[in-house]
Every structure is written in C-alpha cells, then in structure tokens.
Queue: 2 jobs
Job 1
Amino acid sequence: MALTDWRSLHGEHFDGRRVLVTGGAGFIGSHLCEALVELGAEVVVIDDLSGGDTTNFATFQDAAGERLQFIQGCILDRELLDQAVRGCAYVFHQAALGSVPRSIELPSRYVAVNITGTLNVLEAARANGVRRLVLASSSSIYGDSPTLPKVESMALRPKSPYAASKAADEMLLRSHADCYDLDTVSLRYFNIFGPRQNANSAYAAVIAAFAKALGEGTAPVIFGDGEQSRDFTFVENAVHANLLAARAEGPLRGEAMNVACGERITVNQLATAMAARYGQPDVQPVYQPIRAGDVRDSLADLSLAGQRIGYQPIIPFEQGLDATVQWYQEQSGQRNAEPTARA
C-alpha cells in the first residue's frame, strides 16, 4: 500500500495513456507501475526477471486487470522491445543490472545489458513515436569527489563499471534528444530504498541487508568505518520524480537531474536507527574492509530538479524508514504494532 495519494499529485494526466516500464517487475519499477495503475494508465512491463519478480504486482494486479500487461524478456531482444513499446506515449526505462560490487566482477555483462540495452530501448522508442523516455540513472556516476552537495554540472568520475554504464546511458539519451525527434531525461537516483527491495542477495543494498540481518537476530555488517554518508531516498520519491519528468512541459533535451531527499545520513546512524526499530538498540555492527568502487559521501542538490520538473521529496527519510522496516517485519512474520523509538 503506497503512502502517497498519486491522484492528488498527478491528476488525470496518465488516464488512458499507454506506457512502457522496462524492469517493471523490479523494486523501483513495480512501485512505478503501481502508481501508474492508480493513475489510470495502460501499463506494459518488459522484464527478464533476473532481478524482479511478478509477485511485486500482487498488491495492485487485481485493480489493474487488463491495464497491466507483462512481457517476459530482455532489453537485448530488439524485436520484443518493438512489440512492447508500440503505441506507448512514454517509456520509463528502469531495467538494468544493478550493484557496484557485482559490476566489478562482470564488467562485460554490465556493458551489454546496461549500455547496449539502453540503446535498444532508445531505438525502439524512436521508431514508435514515443513522446519522452525517462532513464533511471545513478548518483554513483559522481564518483568520489569530496564536493558536497552533488550538483549536476560536476564532472562525472564513475568508479565502477556499473557507474560507467550509467554515465554512458546518459550520453546516449542526450545524443538521441539532440539528433532525433525523441525527448529524453535522466534521473540520478540517490540510494533508493523501500518495500520490495531484495534483501536475499550478496549484493543487497544497505537498508535491505540491515533489515535481513536484524530480522534474523544477527549483527548488521558495515563495510568501512560506517562514517560514510548517503542521501537515502524512499522509493515513492523516485516514483514521483519519474511521473513529473514524463509530464513536464517543454523539451528536457536529455538533461540529467538529481532525485533524492537532500539529507545526509551516515551508515552508523542508519544502523542505530534500524536496530532501534527492531527492538535491538544494543546490537553492535560488524565492520569489514571497505569494498572497491564504494563512494565515501553522497548528498544531492535538488535545485535543478525543482526548477525543471517541479520535484521536491514527498516522503521524508524517517517516514520512509518506518514503512520499510514494517514491510520487512511483515514479510518475516515479525509484525510490530508500532515502530520502536527512533535513534
């Protein structure tokens, strides 16, 4: 159940519109699909289920009925993409291989899926007269510059094949907007978290990994000293930004903009806050060496997104963390009537 009333924010703009969500069975993609269904859109999903699961549709599939069409397949399949995008006004391109550590192990695979796959999506959108394509990009492309907050005009310094693939994707979107009759925009996500994020992976994001550990009564693992900071962003903020970007007036011409909360939280602070919510305030994290490709600090400047698409975060970190912990507890049968005290 979403925390946000999408109709109050986006009205009737998506009513009856046909849209494609690549990677729509995944964590962020499924939340975007849920909002689009609530907004009356006809939603086509293409997903190879390598990182997603159709059970992510469970909370809204009945309400969607025939307005939700699922196609199992990969964005490297150009014929299938052409079929999926036909008749769509917008494409929300969420499909990608995630995880910085995994990209270091499999760089060739990341280039193939994340870069060639994005080119395929762009070409299918162009051939079928799509109005605008919205890309899920990443704050990881800023790299380890000590400058905070991160501003879109900063030089890109990707530290991993994953980050490099997202930088390349942004360049493809910008060049297509310049060369063809296809408007595009890139959204640089900052540490998105929320319900449905997979915790059962060696490459799980930090909030999901902490939830799994605490739910099992074990200590969370922190790579590094824990004083590295992140701009943790509840998933419905990312959904809101995608919807705003799709319906923005005037061409966006491949611009890239930050999507975050604009709040800096250390991993140690996160561990304390989550341990309190799990009723384990005395638990001590286990510290391990920092991983290759990890960025020390991350904080977004949201000025450009505010100016260009009217984005401001709608769910603050604490509220999002409450909802996320509650969801993980429900999944593991550890339902708590009320979240415990915040750190």
Note: The domain at 14-267+270-331 is CATH 3.40.50.720 (Rossmann fold).
Job 2
Amino acid sequence: MLLDKLLTNLTVEVEPFALCQVSPGWRLRLPGPPKPLLHFVLQGTGAVRDPHEDAQPLAPLWLSVVPVGAKHALECGSSVQNEVRIDAPPPGEPVCHFIAGTPESAELVVACGLVSVRYGPSVSLFEHLRQVLAVDLSDRPGMSAAFRAILAEQNQAGPGSKAMTAALMTECLVHLFRRLGAGPSGSLPWVTALEDPRLGRAIDRMLDNPAADHTVDLLAETASMSRSAFAERFTAAFGRSPMNLLKHIRMQHAAHLLRRDATLSVDDVAARVGYSSRSHFSEAFRKHHGSAPTEFRTGH
C-alpha cells in the first residue's frame, strides 16, 4: 500500500513548541504561521476558528493542523467575550506560554508547534492544505505521552533531543495520516492521491531520480494511463501539473543537498537535480527559494 510507503519515508523537523492556555469566555487570536502549525489538546474542550471565522470543536487528544498563512484562534467556553491577540512569539524560554485569561482558570491547554513534514527530502505533505483540520485522535495510544515528552525534551534539551523530538512527532503524525487516509477524500491531497497506485508510481519515478529526463509521456506510461487522463488526474490530485511538480521536487532536493552536504559544489548539486547549466540552475533556484544557491547554503 502506497500510504504505508509514505509513512515509512516521512522526514520530520520540529521547531520549539508553545503552550497555549485559554480560560472560559476567552479567545486567543494567533497569526498565520510561516510553516504548518500543529495544535494538540492536552486538556479541556474548546474550538479552533479559521480565517473565515468558522469554528471546529476541540477536545482532549485532538490534533488540529493549520495551513501556512492561515490566521486563526483558539477559544474556550460557549460565550466568548474577551480576546487576546498574539502577533509574534515572545523571547525567552524554549517553550513559550500564550495565555488568554489566567493560568489558574485556564481550562483549554494546547501544545502548539511549527513542523516540516516531507515525503522523503523533497515533498511537503501539508503544502496543498487549504483548510484548518481538527482530527480526533483520542483513541490512538500514546498520543498524550508523546506530546508531553516533546515539551519535556524542548524544555530540557540534551544530546539527541532534536532526534528524539522528531521521532516522537513522527509517531503522532503516523496516527494522523492513518486517520486522514481512512476518512473522506480531499482533506489532504497527498494522502489520498498516493493511495492511487498509478499516481504513486509516477511520483516515485520523479523522487527516485529527479535528474532524469522526465516527460509527461514517460510519466503517463509509468502510470499506465493515457497522456491526457494522467495530466488531468495528476493536476486534480496535486494542484499543479506534472512538470511543475517535477521542478518543485528538483528545487527542494537541491535545497536539501545544499544544507546537508557541504562537499558538493553548486555544479554537482545542479547535475544531481537535472541541470547541465549552472547559470540556468541558479536562476531557477533563486526564483524558487528567493536566493542564489551559494547564499542559501551560507544562510542554512
């Protein structure tokens, strides 16, 4: 099953968490995150409100996923009359605290953190998420212990804390993707699309060898579909054409190589993602990432 392959090849990076505490009758407004944001309910009930002011319920051991840039709010109680607005996280402790109301009266307690979740090194699984998700994971064993362990690791970081945090988060995300994969289609395009073995074969071909001379015809042949049917199904599933996604995969893989292997020259990286010309590669990289390959490497 391709969903199993997806879960086996997750690459997860976790940034420092925040702890949100909301008292009854209060709302905590949060800015649109620069990366996908997870809210995990440690205790209490409430709601997460999306940019359109539509609310979804939250309860203990529920996990909410907020898309990039989506302004949203956490609230507690049936009658919300007070509000706190957060524009940016405060400096200080590794795990910062956001409080709407008072810590003593807080009923809704939520662990929140930015995450990067990829299929292999190149494909962001939350990239095409356009709606705030709220998923009940209360029947999944170990969820509360995993998130509390993540907070503990970040509060008292030691050798291997980054790897431990990523491993704990991966466990939680496996539960999330299992639930999404079993639910209605469309909530997370990558999950549902990769369950189609035809599209999965085409994606695997691009991921396994980004530098190859891929064409829509060859990818359609790999998927055992006609060119027109493949292009239509692919674009509907992933929100972009096969060649557009291929370029994205190449640029993401190039960024991964620049960050992780200082022994590779820019020419080597260009060749590994299918560019014979350094200048063409550098131009494409700058358009995609906002900086030249050498500048990107220096900053990362």
Note: The mean pLDDT is 87.
